[in-house]
Amino acid sequence: MNYPESVEYLYSLGNEIRTAKLGLERMTILAEALSHPERAYSVVHVAGTNGKGSTSAMIASGLRADGHRVGLYTSPHLVEPTERIAVDGKAISAADFSRAFVHVHETAERMLLAGTLDAHPTYFETVTLMAFWWFAECGVDWAVIEVGLGGRLDATNIVTPQLCVITPVDYDHEAWLGKSLDSIAFEKAGILKTGVPVVMGPQRAVPRDVIERRAETVHAPVLDATAWPVAGLKMDARGSRFSAAGLEIQCPLAGEHQVENARTAAVALHALELTPEQIQAGIGATRWPGRLEMVQVNPEIWLDGAHNPSGARALAAYINRFHKERRILLIYGAMRDKSVEEIAGVLFPLADELILTAPGQTRALRPEAILEMEPHPRARFASGARAALAMKHNCDVVFVTGSLYLVGEARAILVQ
Questions:
Q1: CA-based angle 399:263:248, to the nearest 5?
Q2: 124-161 confidence digits (pLDDT tens)
Q3: For position 34, what pLDDT does the model report?
Q4: Which residue, 226, 265, 349, 380, has most beta carbons within 10 Å?
């Protein structure tokens, strides 16, 4: 089976969110059949609502700076599914992606025929197993594994990590994780393992209490990132410099929220006994596409997957801080299962002009429905990312935001 065929089969398994199977039984059975590849290397397991991808990327970069061979598993992808599985900063090739898929798929098919498996693993379960297997094949020393949905019952939670990390917990995926911060935090804290330290990023009071109670139950030492005070913060539109616990950090990722992510990553890397020089080098070399990423200069075009309320607030804070006097064009599209009305209420007032569109996904929300939720006096509609980017406007800077799928489509057009 070649790469296009393997991707087509994965998509035939259904949307990874809508068809998510929260539970570890199938993953445990399949991992056993695959000889437990997730046990072949040391693991950092990262959960949270926002910032877990950026933080994972910084931790992986730091471990590479320490001379380790490092796997990084993240989701979702922007353009190609290969982006989800990377070793030493390079995405898996299309050929190796299909090879990993065939290995997992054929294992599942044999077990289905033998009656030892209830159903084929879902999209996310399959790709997670592919990542675990590929990292073992590549002989990585460390794998940084980002949780997909929640934590406690997420497919990634069959790992036994050397370190857990929980970035800020906020509202997202309430249909699966519960309507309250208490229930969402309970699911995120489900990645904690007996005796395994957890680095806790800055939290609101309720999630903090839930995480600390879970940590006490499983005797997991808590390393609070806020115990490293940020000092001497200097920010510009493209990154920041600051010190934390005497460590000088240069973060190349834009936005004030990335300061918190960088601090959390630094605490995690310190817990893994990296030197200050390795931590500095690793965080300074981090790349994380599609998150406040400038991809064009004239006109200035920024991509940011602000797909939930806290992400929208972070983007709004960035715009207010660095682009307040400029005319803003916002290109926005969203999925139906997101808190669109709340997100639009945060972002739309900042836009001098607004173009509403829809990513090419079955879950995409109609642009007309978005405008009904949050009217805007200068709103227009576009049939997709390409059409939106081609529309004339009278603005200084363009932000493409909302769904990460829309961001990915725009990036595929703009970044060659």
A1: 105
A2: 999 999 999 999 999 999 999 999 989 999 999 999 99
A3: 98
A4: 265
**pLDDT tens sequence across 305-344:** 887 888 899 999 999 999 999 999 999 999 887 889 999 9
The alpha carbon dihedral of 69, 52, 198, 255 has a sign of: positive
Task: Report long-range pairs for 77-81 (Cβ below 8 Å, ≥24 apart).
Answer: 77/408, 78/289, 78/290, 78/404, 78/407, 78/408, 78/411, 78/412, 79/408, 79/409, 79/411, 79/412, 81/7, 81/10, 81/127
The class of domain 3-284 in CATH terms is alpha beta
Where are the domains positioned within the chain?
Answer: 3-284, 291-414
C-alpha span between 89 and 63 (Å, rounded): 11
Specify the pairing of strand 230-236 against strand 300-304.
unpaired
The burial class, CB within 10 Å (0-12 / 13-18 / 19+), for 209 is middle
CB within 8 A of 206, min separation 6: which ones? 180, 181, 182, 185
Radius of gyration of the chain (CA): 21
Quick one: DSSP state of residue 364?
Answer: B
Contact yes or no for 302/329 (Cβ under 8 A): no
Contact 288, 282 (CB under 8 A): no
Residue ranges in 285-395 assigned as alpha helix (H): 309-322, 340-347, 367-373, 385-390
> Would you say 350 and 319 are in contact if contact means Cβ atoms under 8 Å apart?
yes
Strand partners, 414: none
Q: What φ, ψ does residue 244 adopt, rounded to 5°? A: -145, 120
Report field, pTM of the whole predicted structure over 0.85: yes
